[in-house]
Design a protein that fits this description.
alpha+beta; 7-stranded antiparallel β-sheet; 4-stranded mixed β-sheet; 18 strands; about 35% helix; globular
């Protein structure tokens, strides 16, 4: 009996070793996350390893970048300093700026799922005093073809409530009926501020509460927090504007300015956390498959849909964020399985060199099967 047991154990060991060798031949090995615990699994893929460094190091990159294939990190590149004393890490968090809009869109669709909102609802149902509100739908706010526009406002002080922000929007936003009628697209962040105000109105909760409940708790995100959080729990980077002569100027926006970015750019996230969240929105894990398609899938020749642009050759979704010394980029397949995520805490004045490198890399990486 013992002889058979030993033989069986020996066969199992042989199978395990053989499987491990096959994995090595394929170039994929699991990486331990004991030092830098990330939201998604990391593996070493010899085919992809080094691509990010080769491309981004030429830009004097300061930040964190990851390549995703089959929902796993297959390459990463970290460079530069997060603060005056700390280096950037894979778990460092960065202000994601406009990359937050796709997340706000997800919060809107979550309320549609709950029956509290319809994409066809007119805005005057919630904010009757907003110019043009009786002509604009929730869907048009999401896709930025509402006919609304608003110049960038300057704020002082350390506090700004949602009610005060809404008053500023109502007093300063402009509605162009001809633009609305033509369906012309115009990038106007105020659309997402209005959506965020509507979310707070219909739920009785703050935007932050909705974000925490829908995303952070559900997906167990550990490296995600708001810019105005008093108790900073993540390895947060400072944002620097880099001048042509190389001088770095640390950015420190006042509290009112941070609060004015409601739903459009007030969240800090690590690159792995951000990928996990956006992929979970696109693949239906958070919203359901049908709702995710209805919200995000581009229609016809439309380039912008609920916070994401569309690249056609090859086909993938993307977004860019700039502000307060940060520059962020995401390029992701529609099913969320492949992605390029690049977060930097160096915003170089008058230079889009980092974006060009990200685009070049993404076209190759996302363009093959």
């Amino acid at each position: 009996m013992k002889k058979w047991i030993y033989t069986f154990i020996g066969i199992l060991m042989f199978i395990c070793i053989a499987c491990y060798i096959v994995t090595l031949k394929k170039g994929d090995t699991v990486v331990s996350n004991t030092k830098t615990k990330t939201a998604i699994t990391r593996i070493v893929d010899r085919k992809e390893s080094g691509k990010l460094k080769k491309s981004l190091s030429k830009t004097k990159f300061s930040g964190t970048a990851v390549l995703i294939k089959n929902n796993k990190i297959v390459d990463s590149y970290v460079s530069g300093s997060a603060t005056d004393v700390d280096k950037n890490m894979l778990t460092t968090t960065y202000e994601i700026d406009s990359l937050q809009k796709v997340l706000t869109a997800g919060l809107v669709m979550n309320q549609v799922n709950k029956g509290k909102l319809k994409l066809t609802d007119r805005v005057n149902k919630f904010i009757p005093d907003l110019p043009g509100s009786k002509y604009i739908t929730i869907r048009e706010l999401l896709d930025m073809n509402s006919g609304l526009s608003m110049k960038k406002m300057k704020f002082s002080g350390n506090n700004l409530s949602s009610a005060e922000l809404l008053d500023v929007v109502i007093d300063n936003v402009r509605f162009d009926a001809n633009t609305k009628k033509s369906g012309k697209w115009s990038y106007q962040p105020v659309n997402f501020v209005i959506l965020s105000e509507i979310l707070e109105e219909i739920t009785g909760k703050s935007y932050k509460q909705l974000f925490d409940e829908t995303y952070i708790k559900k997906l167990k995100l550990k490296q995600t927090e708001f810019a105005y959080d008093n108790n900073i729990k993540t390895n947060r980077a400072y944002g620097y504007v880099v001048k042509g002569n190389g001088d770095r100027i640390k950015q420190n926006p006042n509290g009112a300015t941070v609060f004015s970015e409601l739903g459009t750019g007030q969240v800090y996230m690590s690159a792995p956390d951000y990928y996990k969240l956006v992929a979970s929105l696109l693949n239906g894990k958070v919203l359901g498959t049908d709702a995710a398609k209805e919200l995000y899938l581009p229609l016809g020749n439309g380039k912008y849909r609920a916070g994401l642009y569309t690249s056609k050759k090859p086909f993938y979704r993307y977004a860019n964020g700039y502000g307060y010394g940060f520059e962020s980029h995401v390029r992701i397949s529609q099913d969320g399985k492949k992605a390029v995520v690049v977060f930097s805490n160096h915003q170089v004045s008058g230079n889009n060199g980092l974006k060009k490198k990200v685009d070049q890399l993404s076209k190759k990486f996302l363009g093959y099967k």
